[in-house]
Design a protein that fits this description.
seven-stranded mixed beta sheet, SAM-dependent_MTases_sf, globular, alpha/beta, 396 residues, Rossmann fold
């Protein structure tokens, strides 16, 4: 298929996918800022997942080892949020961890330790927006309970010296892979992901390539945290997951496949660009969403292989994408639902879509996605669930 003559200027962008895909850590991030398409304005699902896991996190903090029994001997308590992104979720979580541990030390030891809070994400993350939000939470000189530090880097590599951290949390981040598997980027390979942009329902070779990359990534993550967390410290994980009964090619349960933002409507939007002559099929096939939903068994196997951690609790749970009240509101106004879903995918995918086809075609893709979602009113009567895995472990 020939590209539209009006988009000759975009040919540079549409052939750059091999470059960005091989350097995913340079472009992968949640959309920064505070606009309608920003992660800060479109992280309700993540917020719901964090609310769901809060009781487990609180339980882990209430039972963790107290490292200092007197103020004279106390060092700072060091807490890291790995994959912090931007916005309210990471700040609220950090505040909860610090407040909980502060109260424990006051009740048991009679003093408040100092805290260091490390906000960690890839260098492409919008740390400026994050720290502006942090300052806004403590206006008029109100004292913050911790010293805040930004740490740019991949959590699939070492980020801290040995035995540095007392608490490490990662919330809604670990299902993002460190890279798109090399075989998936090779169009001569059996793992070339023709006709779709994610692995839900993909052929066996594609799914196996993703599963191998996921296994390596999780092992790397755990191995580095084993070095960084002190004995007795906590590792708390919340990440996208799938039911244990589902094979890897079924990343989603049956209730969610039609409505998930990475599946049908997204594939249709890419096909619209092809049909209109704006991109070719190779450009679409070269775009792959770098996410993999593990099951509990895969996580347990990785922890066992790594060693150094004792799992205290691990669960799979489902979260509805929105409330029943919101669904009723959107049934009355499908256009608003399309806009909301389009902003959600902008928040999560825009940086890598921009890198793949350029910002102009990227915006056209999201408009096609919005149109598809708005026009399929049957979707509004279905419920999409996001599966998550929650794990609490102690460094031993």
């Amino acid at each position: 298929m020939e590209l539209s003559s009006s988009n000759i200027s975009n040919t540079y962008f549409v052939k750059q996918w091999q470059t960005w895909a091989g350097s995913l850590h340079r472009v992968l991030c949640m959309q920064g800022g505070d606009g309608d398409g920003s992660y800060a304005k479109n992280s309700e699902a993540s917020a719901s997942a964090i609310t769901l896991c809060q009781p487990l996190l609180l339980s882990a903090l209430q039972s963790m080892k107290l490292f200092f029994l007197s103020k004279e001997d106390a060092d700072s308590i060091r807490v890291a949020d790995l994959g912090c992104a931007t916005g309210y979720n990471t700040l609220a979580t950090m505040n909860m961890v610090v407040n909980t541990l502060t109260q424990r030390y006051l009740n048991v030891c009679g003093f408040e330790p100092e805290f260091e809070a490390f906000f960690c994400d890839l260098p492409s993350n919008d740390f400026n927006s994050l720290f502006r939000s942090l300052e806004a939470m403590f206006p008029d000189g109100k004292a913050r309970q911790y010293y805040a530090v930004g740490v740019p880097g991949s959590f699939y590599h070492r980020l801290f010296p040995r035995r540095k951290l007392h608490v490490a949390v990662t919330l809604s981040a670990l299902h993002w892979l460190s890279k798109i598997p090399d075989a998936v980027l090779d169009k001569t390979s059996g793992s070339w992901n023709r006709g779709r942009v994610w692995i839900e329902g993909a052929k066996k070779e594609v799914v196996e390539a993703y599963a191998r990359q996921s296994e390596k990534d999780l092992e790397d993550f755990l191995r580095h945290r084993r070095e960084e967390i002190v004995v007795g410290g906590i590792l708390f994980i919340l990440m996208g997951g799938r039911p244990g009964s589902e094979p890897p090619e079924n990343q989603l349960d049956a209730d969610s496949r039609a409505k998930h933002p990475f599946t049908v409507s997204m594939d249709q939007a890419w096909q619209d660009l092809i049909n209109e002559g704006l991109i070719d099929e190779e450009t679409r096939d070269g775009f792959n969403i770098p996410a993999y939903m593990r099951n509990v068994e895969e996580v347990e196997a990785a922890v066992k292989k790594c060693g150094g951690f004792e799992i205290k609790r691990i669960e799979y749970k489902r979260i509805a994408e929105h409330s029943e009240e919101k669904q009723e509101e959107w049934i009355k106004d499908p256009g608003s639902y399309g806009r909301a879903k389009a902003n959600l995918v902008r928040a999560t995918l825009r940086p890598i879509v921009d890198a793949h086809i350029g910002p102009d075609l990227s915006e056209q893709l999201f408009q096609r996605f919005q149109n598809r979602v708005s026009s399929d009113t049957a979707l509004l009567h279905k419920t999409c669930f996001y599966g998550v895995i929650i794990m609490s472990a102690i460094r031993v």
